[in-house]
Specification:
- The structure is a homodimer.
- The radius of gyration of chain A is 19 Å and the shape is globular.
- By secondary structure, chain A is of the alpha/beta class.
- Helices cover 40% and strands 13% of the residues of chain A.
- Chain A starts with 5 loop residues before the first helix and ends with a helix.
- Chain A is built from 14 helices and eleven strands.
- In chain A, the strands form two sheets. Chain A has an eight-stranded parallel sheet. Chain A has a three-stranded antiparallel sheet with strand order 7-11-10, with no helix packed on it.
- Chain A has two domains: 1-76 and 112-246 and 335-357, Aldolase class I (TIM Barrel, Alpha-Beta Barrel); 85-108 and 249-330, no CATH class.
- Chains A and B meet through α8, α9 and α14 of A and α8, α9 and α14 of B.
Chain lengths: 357, 357
């Protein structure tokens, strides 16, 4: 079996394909279960979920598949101090009005939800625990591993990958600059940590001895094969799964991906205060133009949430964070199980073509 | 033979490996000939050469190898109108002084050198003619093809690749965001046209029917294999060849590459007025901070040339355009022929590993 890797062997999954945890309602129990059932590893992003929601999501996945699946949280990030939100509120107000909403409130300084979420994650039935935005506390790593979970961190540079390995993770996801959604960067300068997948993956592979998962710009079997020959032990794909019928995205978001060009995304802080790659739209463009209109993460995320929630209900993509990577032209409407099977078959065919006679 | 592609077959070269034309003295006749002699395709960047220098370079390569080689020019770009160079001169003057030079002059508006360079290129003995920064005139394409040259343009987006194919090129080099040196972009927004290789190559392959050459972040056999499985017919590598002893770069430039990290480069206009990726250094950082300090291409290039020439003589990398891609950690000191043979062997080994039993 050509696509067997250290990752598939250690986890007992059939294919080295991870459906990226996407949070914010994009990944549903149906999507996660479909990917795992098809032999990949479905994962859910639980960073915005309460402990009760984490348990509920895990139960729903477990009811639909007995195969391994994963859960993802944000590592604890520094809580910002008090900020003046007036410019951000003023900038966002016209968008709120257009959706029939009252102006946004100054978001309260949030308490870290990590400890409670972690407790729920330990009991949700997941086989894999992944995280992004930094390193989780050592005690968390120990507890996760003692309960038999496979732990994976997210790196955007070699230095971050090394820090994660020293911290005791079982694998590192190397997030290339092509990737949609939030950048996992936690050391150095966000603007410098945008390394293309084809350059990042082999450099991370050379620097650590744990399995490396490639993410960023991978949309089909060609990308899967490329990741494996670069030395990755698996791929993590987000955008490709968003256009599956099982994903939770609103139809206008799905259409935005299917109509997008490879040069139609960029990295923005407009929605959450943290850099993330998405399809360029009106909110992004207008907010980026205004001084002081973007609060630090997670305050901006809290500030824009009512707008995004209303935009989902009204199917208005110009107010949504349309997270997507640079491989968008390769997106298609396809059931998640069919997608997993197709890309694996494509990758195998590619390898057959290049195998010596 | 596993690494045979449409590109190798049409050109009669052994390996699908192109040494990127680098101009500015980085590629020497010895480098170009060594790559071609080793079974790759050596290429020289002739954009800054006079017709006599183009002829001389071609003769030197032809004397050293009978294998095919290539030449590269800049497509004609719009000549800028008169500009006020005072801020650019003021910003650059301290750097000139530090090197013992008088302050720079306002550069004259240049005449296009393309037509004369093209005539020389047609007769220089090259088998391949490649270009960047746009499309060359239709008459040039016709003449090149009628003389039996294989013509290749440079694209950073799908739209640019399609435009080149419509223009009649034989192949298109898809330049990923990881690539060192000047961005080839000629349509749309420079800032949007930074697509990672792993995303760009398959989308270009899907959009055109001519062979696609992958460039950006490819440094060894893993990258070669990745490019081929993504659908590329060859790779084009620049940074990897700069640290070969045959390259023309000054020792401090070579050391800067060998000491660089994957997050140590960025795209700048500071040296030439056109976006190009290089290792961050003092000139880049300080010039980027100052308003109006960068003239449009090619005026900024002309303005900074005396400084760069003096910096080469004095081996001072902080004043040099240290063009390099994001794969810098994979650079090593190695003869060009050994590099070509090593990466091909690595790629073949990778494919063996993934071929079915």
């Amino acid at each position: 079996m050509a696509l067997t890797t250290e990752f598939t062997q250690r986890l007992g999954v059939t294919h080295p394909v991870i459906q990226a945890p996407m949070a914010g309602g994009s990944d549903t129990p149906a999507l996660v279960a479909a990917v795992s059932e098809a032999g990949g590893l479905g994962c859910y992003g639980a960073a915005y979920l309460t402990p009760a929601q984490i348990a509920e999501f895990g139960s729903a996945v477990s009811a639909a598949t007995s195969k391994p699946f994963g859960i993802n949280l944000f590592a604890p990030t520094p809580i910002p101090g008090p900020v003046d939100a007036s410019a951000a509120i003023e900038a966002a107000t016209p968008f709120f009005s257009e959706l029939g909403l009252d102006p946004p409130h100054a978001p309260p300084i949030p308490a870290s939800a990590f400890d409670d979420q972690l407790k729920a994650a330990l009991q949700c039935g997941a086989r894999v625990f992944s995280f992004t935005f930094g390193m989780v506390p050592e005690a968390a790593i120990r507890e996760l591993k003692s309960r038999g979970l496979f732990v994976m961190g997210t790196a955007t540079t070699v230095e971050e990958a090394r820090a994660l390995e020293r911290g005791g993770v079982d694998a590192v996801a190397a997030q290339g600059s092509e990737a949609g959604g939030h950048r996992g960067s936690f050391r150095g300068d966000f603007d410098a940590n945008v390394i293309g997948t084809v350059a990042l993956v082999p450099q991370v592979v050379d620097a650590v001895s744990i399995p490396v998962v490639a993410s960023g710009g991978i949309m089909d079997g060609r990308g899967v094969a490329a990741a494996l020959v670069l030395g990755a032990s698996a791929v993590q794909m987000g955008t490709a799964f968003l256009t599956c019928p099982e994903s939770g995205v609103v139809e206008s978001y799905r259409e935005a991906i299917l109509g997008a060009r490879e040069d139609g995304t960029r990295i923005t802080r407009a929605f959450s205060g943290r850099p993330a790659r998405g399809i360029v739209n009106r909110f992004m463009t207008e907010i980026e133009k205004r001084d002081g209109a973007i609060l630090p993460f997670p305050l901006q995320n809290a500030l824009t949430r009512p707008m995004r929630t209303a935009a989902v209900k009204q199917n208005r993509s110009e107010f949504l964070s349309l997270w997507a990577g640079q491989g968008v032209r390769m997106a298609r409407r396809e059931a998640a199980a069919d997608l997993v099977k197709r890309i694996v078959a494509e990758a195998e065919l590619v390898f057959e073509k290049f195998s010596a006679e």
